[in-house]
Amino acid sequence: MPKNAYTSQIVTDYETLEPGETDSWNPLGNEYELAYRLAVFYALTQALEMSQISLRDLKVLDLGCGNGRSTRMYIDLGLSPRQLTGLDLRPGTIELAKKLNPGISYLAYDGETIPFPSHSFNWISVTTVFSSIKGEECRRHIVEQIYQALPPGGYVFYFDLRLINWFAGIGPVRPLQLFSKFDRVWYYPVKHMDFIPLDKQFRKVSQVFRSGDIKQFRSTILSLPARFLQFSHEALLVQKR
Question: Signal peptide location in the record (predicted)?
Answer without folding.
Answer: none
